[in-house]
Input
Amino acid sequence: MDVVDMARQCRLSGDWEVYPVPLAEGTLGPEPPSGSTISVPDASHLQPVLYPKNPYWGDHIRAINQSAWMYRRRFSVPSGPYRRARLRFGGVDYFALVWLNGQCLGNHEGHFTPFDFDVTHALRHDDENLLQVCVSAPWDAPNPGGTYPSDHVLRGLVKGMYEHGEGLIPPTVNPIGVWRPVYLLLDQGISVERLRIRTKTDGTVSVRVTLTNATNGLWLGGLALDVQAENHQGAGTAMHVPVRLPVGTRQAEVTLQIPDPQLWWPWDHGEPNLYRITCRLIDSWERVIADHTETFGLRTVRLDRTRERFTYEINGRPVFIRGTSYMPDLYLSRCTRGALERDLQLAQDANLNLVRVHVHRSPDDLYDICNRTGMLIWQDFELNWIHQSTPEFETRAKSLQREMIASLYNHPAIITWSCHNEPTMVFTRRENLEQHPDPALYADAKQQDPTRPVFICSGQMEHDWLRAGDIHTYYGAIWTDTFTDVYRHKARLNTEFGFEAPAHADTLRTYPECWERLKHLAPKIDDLWTYQAELIRFHVEHYRRLRAQGCAGYIHFWLADLVPQVGCGVLDSSRRPKGGYAALRDASQPLHIALEHNGRRPFAIWVFNDTNTHHDAVRVRWRVCDAQDAVIYESSAPASIPANTSMRVLTAKWNPRLCSSVELALEDFSGAVLARTSYVEPFKPMKRPAGYPWKFDPYLGCKVFDRPDAPSLADQSTHWIVRAVPVAIREQVAEWVLRQRIPPWAVRAIAQFIG
Output
């Protein structure tokens, strides 16, 4: 078999010439005046290029999206024979209208989906070619009567959290640009477009191969598939089948069997074993004219879902989820593989086994790294809060979700799809959830991928355990002023909890406009970090106890801030740890000993064992000290801790009024410490900091605690009825509404009354 240069991929590298054009123009228009264009590096967003010193806040950033931007470059066709030429765009944010040599090729929507155009007849072979791309990412129109930040606009773009406006994404940022590379593809008109790989734990590999014949007649040849171990020493397999490929696109189904299969596991349950499959099309002269390679893992995933309990199973084994939400950068074009590896290592160092890719599709490297390191992924689609509820928007969203699932299907790390984050953030607005687009997205995701659990939405649908069933809780944050209130809460799966805390002072000082608005927090940062840490620890230990009652796990919100700010990240945007990082790390240890209490008195000592090791003949030790550090209670007891379980081992009966600190330890038969935990003043929990969560800086788009001149988030509504109510009452009512689990029938009745 000869591997010949029958297909070539040429990156169109170098800077783009870019200039603004009117948003609604949609035509090439006249040539720009001489010297009026700017040079923009290949594969980058506009904002960091135009304003590198401040790409985050201000009217100058918002103004970028009030124009469309024309990108253009010239290129020549490399020498050599070919029968078909295509231009492939790795990603354009957000709308793209493309011309080659003055000929309109077509348009595209969606920042994360690659797309291509056949340019065989538009290409100039002996002269330079002019490629022009009109790019726009417009702001949504204001929503009359809406409330900032929940529904001040009805989002019309499928673009995650941009225009979220509060606490995560600065309100003036809406990335725009040709942010991924563009390639010229030259081939013989025959190509392998995509592989879809399904696996079983017995080594069965079912491959659906999508093939294209863009020639003028029937193509006869062979399809060769070769499977080899990627990161281990296991055996591979191969197969060759004849192919008759008529003109057009066809699919072929092939099943292979891997001997002695090596399964893919999350890092805390085994090795993330991967295989590499190469698919080749071979012509009658034994030449490889097209090929395609993917990595995959042998693993199954199941969510045992009942009204009472959820349990994730990987390869038939229960796996308790210890996770956090994550987005690598405000501008995804700035992500490097090294930065992603650093962040995911920080997540694993925090003893987490899952990242929720929160309301976005990340760069490909993230998924490859998670496959190779055994980090599980909960993958969100790019809908957040309130969107347009029309059939037209549903059609657009469904198309983009289909492309997301198809492009990520083969990654073993992904164990869940979720269609929409908090679609009823305004609890009376249920059109997205009940009409368009969520029911269609859910049905389509289940049809497209029956091998993974699908959630119609995340948060606010706890009662609908068949389609959703997870919960978001913000006790001690935006719901109540005491984080121990979560003790009364039961859950099958928590996918959001956390608290906003300021970045390290040195990080805030990086941007003067940020520091000026947040410098009042400098003397309070340590206390705010301590509060974040205590809240996170209490929540994590609470949900780990609930495993015994059917809780599948927790996903903390969130790993790292995107900009210098007050944010929920346990790492700031410079990756300096806040107080919450150590608390999340310590409470998430696979083997952990913890005190059950409600902030007022102790109840029991628990051991959480998320490992596959049974710990027999161990001893639990505890020591309780008063304010003078004198020991008032001290004892130990034998225990046996089964694998993969949460277990109440002892009842705690000491007097909380005398207790100032508690030390717990789990030791093996030799006295070696297997797990250790300590608590300081556990029965005097900190109260929510002053000014939180309502004091808000509209310029930064984040909370500012007790800054005197800051407005209240509750004062941002444009509805005249709401504005007639005093602000303090609005704040109390909003917190009450947020923490209620109001039955859907009552919500519908309230919505009809308001309407």
The chain has five domains: 2-186, 189-296, 326-589, 595-680, 706-754. The chain has a mean pLDDT of 95. The longest strand covers residues 219-229. The chain has 14 helices and 42 strands.
